[in-house]
Amino acid sequence: MLDVNQEWEEIGDYMHDIMKKLFPICRSITGDGIRQTLKIIKDNIPIEIIEVPTGTKVFDWTVPKEWNINDAFVKNSKGKKIIDFKKSNLHVVSYSISIKKKLPLEELKKHLFSLPKYPGWIPYLTSYYNENWGFCLTHNQFDKLEEDIYEVLIDSTLKEGHLTYGEFYLRGETEKEILFSCYICHPSLCNDNLSGPVLLTALANNLIRIKKNTRLKYSYRFLFIPETIGAINWLYHNENNVKNIISGLISTCVGDSGNTTYKKTREGNTITDIVIEKVLIDSGEPFKIIEFFPSGSDERQFCSPGFNLSIGSLMRTVYGHFPEYHTSADNLDFVKPRFLANSLKKYMKYIYILENNKTYINLNPKCEPQLGRRGLYRMIGGQKGEEIDELAIFWVLNLSDGKNSLLDISIRSKMSFELIKKTADALIKKKLLQEIFTNKEYI
Ligand code: ZN
Questions:
Q1: Is 179 exposed, middle or buried (0-12, 13-18, 19+ CB in 10 A)?
Q2: Cα(294)–Cα(17) distance, rounded to whole angstroms?
Q3: Backbone angles phi, psi at 310, to 5 degrees
């Protein structure tokens, strides 16, 4: 049913083009940067935009004041801007309070941050819950600073407002749902951050298109939220609905050249873990599976013990494990359309398995049916390995006793899920298999 062989190159360019539009925006956990970001996403998929007022209590947290920024710079005594927010929004520590003053180099240095190890890169820093101010700059810039009286301006506001996030829900035949979540709170940073939202935008778009032509068994929910506080907010306001979530993924760092990495769910053996492992094996590409750990992105909230959802994270290189992470080098060149497309393909395969994983019974269980008489012998698919296809028939017929799903059969036979599914389809046509409904449908 789901078409997984699309024009991947075009899709990679589509994602990278959205990323180019999102890149210049100065985002933080609240503020107009998030609204502009969601508006661009809304040009592509019909998300709902939700505003939660400052001061709202959400579990142990409180929605913070809203932060916005117009301009920021550091000028030397000759009036020359030596750090300019308009050149890169990474130059200002996110959530910096408003400031306008003159100060000597020694005092200014207390508010400057650079990376001696990577002297050409600007670091990314935040001060969300501690009112402070600061500038980030390259170490090359830092080294050039001379004794002088500097003029510092940060024209920002931190006041009562809202926390903003986006949500898109696509109803399938059942209320059981698959959750995809990403964060939209980093400024001009591509792999660790924008790759997640652009991948989920393309994924949602694909599902909308697919739903026009065919049925979707599950419902799908997509969250575009500020990290941590956004996830806590969403869980607080949707506590009664999370029971419908059977599986899900946090999408982050999906556009770099590294191999795919899967971070398991907290339980480590849920449907999400089993399906993703199969997706990765079937891809034929190198991959890594790592155990859950309680730091990282929003899996920290979704997999907190009070929720313990079956949510993992499908990435390429893990956040914090590439030198460009949280620096100006994590830019539009670091993320390539083909890696975004490759990641999207794996997300689509995950959905393909979930949607097509059914359980059948063999209608001719006493000894093997005579395949030649039914035109099945060496007939499936017309691919190269004819014996393999014949073997796939034997596997599907033998294990279809009502206890094994197609996913179980594909794992046990070490054959791709797609081949096992196509084989089952051929056997159904010949009236050798019948679907049965079991609680094991997605387990
Ligand atoms: Zn980050």
A1: buried
A2: 33
A3: -85, 70
Q: Which of 413, 431, 410 is nearest to 362 (CA)?
A: 431
State the pTM of this model: 0.95
Question: Residue type for 432, please?
Answer: L
Q: List pLDDT tens digits, range 335-361.
A: 999 999 999 999 999 999 999 999 999
C-alpha of residue 105 to centroid of ligand 1, in Å: 30
The tokens for 173 are 């035949």
Q: Beta partners for 222?
A: 168, 180
Are 423 and 367 contacting, i.e. CB atoms less than 8 angstroms apart?
Answer: no
CA distances 377 to 229, 363, 372, 428, Å, are: 58, 18, 5, 15
Ligand 1 geometric centre to CA of 193 (Å)? 6
pLDDT (tens digit per residue) in 229-258: 999 999 999 999 999 999 999 999 999 999
With a CB cutoff of 8 Å and minimum separation 6, the contacts of 312 are 248, 249, 250, 262, 263, 264, 265, 272, 273, 276, 292, 299
Say how many Å lie between the CA of residue 312 and the centre of ligand 1: 17
Enter the DSSP assignment of 253. Answer: S
**Rounded CA Rg of the chain:** 25
CA dihedral 248, 252, 255, 256 (to 10 degrees): -120
For ligand 1, the distance from its centroid to the CA atom of residue 96, given in whole angstroms, is 17
Each residue of 11-46: pLDDT tens digit?
A: 999 999 999 999 999 999 999 999 999 999 999 999
